[in-house]
Amino acid sequence: MEAKSRRSVDELVEAFEEHLRRTRGAHPSISRKDVYYVRLFIKYASDEDLVDVTGFAAQDVIGFITSLVGRYQPATIKGVSTTLRRFFRFLRAEGLRDDHLDDAVPGVVHRRGAGLPRHLDARQLERFIAGLDRSSPRSLRDHAMILCIARLGLRASEVVRLCLEDIDWRAAVLNVPTRKTGHGALLPLVTDVGEAIVEYIEKGRPTTRSRNLFVLHGRRVGEPASPQVVSDAVTAALNKAGVEAPIRGPNLLRHTLATRLIRGGASLKEIADLLGHRCLETTQIYAKLDLESLREVALPWPEVVS
Questions:
Q1: pLDDT over 70 for what percent of the chain?
Q2: Residue 21 carries which DSSP code?
Q3: Is 167 found in the same domain as 60?
Q4: What is the mean pLDDT of residues 270-295?
Q5: pTM of the model
Q6: Above pLDDT 90, what percent of the chain?
């Protein structure tokens, strides 16, 4: 067992990733996130190049989860806990451990919708959009990708899956082929988004055989961009604009769009359709932001009659 239980870190996480894809049908973007968390745990629990998985102990698991508190949001830590349970079950299924270390993973309390969604206010959003760089081919790409999120509410994964054929210039609509809902969507190609895409295609997009709208500009020029490229572009633009944002990344812009829409009178169903939510429960958190409407329906506190 001892020789079998000793694996290199790369060998171990690659086997776990293959297990996720084979047994759970995990999407590559999801399995990559799981692998990242497992690497973090292994680095925390062992500093050896060859890892003896039988050496992982309950105190390592508890200490690792505790170390994430304050560094990550509760929802993220909850996801890490779920990943570790999968990893320890994988070790047992592979015969690398015969115990139930997954039972040692502490539970993380995270009530969905308990807090307010974090967003930019109108002034911050205006300063952010105005500060977007358009001086180079790569910045033209980033400008167009960011507007697809800020104006249309696309996810980073949806942005990078867009192809040239998905744009209907005559009808001024953008076809999003696949969303989390399991269905595609036709979204209006608003003026500034359309102009940004045209500018990128004409002045920035490199010559490539790829039909993906947004492609790489550094190494592997012309290959499709990844969701991480989109996330990095948003973060870099926020830093450049000097915007003090409560969170970083594409979801900040999606939250901001939803907040602006609900304060403008849009219904939860309309926002859910735009953002591609599978159920209204996901969208209901934005109702907390419609403070004026909440004040109208709030009942007065009953007076105490002596």
A1: 75
A2: I
A3: no
A4: 51
A5: 0.55
A6: 34
At 89 the pLDDT is: 93
DSSP state for residue 164 in the 8-state scheme: G
Cβ(41)–Cβ(57) below 8 Å: no
Angle between helices 250-263 and 122-130 (to 10 degrees): 130
Q: Is residue 182 part of a domain?
A: yes
CA nearest to 53, candidates 6, 86, 92: 6
The b-or-e profile of 180-207 (16+ CB within 10 A means b, else e) is eeeeebebebeeebbebbebbeeebbee
Mean pLDDT of 291-304: 44
**C-alpha closest to that of 121 among 265, 243, 272:** 243
Q: How many domains does the chain have?
A: 2
Same domain? For 150 and 29 the reply is no
28 and 145 inside one domain: no
234: containing domain: 122-293
230 Cβ contact list (under 8 Å, min separation 6): 145, 149, 156, 159, 160, 214, 250
How are the residues of the chain apportioned to helix, strand and coil, as percentages rounded to the nearest 5? Answer: 60, 5, 35
Task: Indicate the range of 46-60, 86-100, 175-189 predicted with least confidence.
Answer: 175-189
Helices marked H in 46-173: 58-68, 74-93, 122-130, 137-152, 156-161
Averaged pLDDT for residues 186-200: 92
**What's the sign of the alpha-carbon dihedral 51, 52, 55, 57?**
positive
The pLDDT value recorded for residue 275 is 64
CB 289 within 8 A of CB 271: no
My answer on whether 138 and 270 are in the same domain is yes
94 and 160 inside one domain: no
Same-domain status, 81 and 145: no
Is 60 exceeded by the pLDDT of residue 299? no
Residue 160 CB: number of other CB atoms within 10 A? 21
Tokens of 296: 């109208």
Q: Write the CATH number for 7.
A: 1.10.150.130
Least confident span in 38-52, 98-112, 266-280: 266-280
Domain contains 112: no
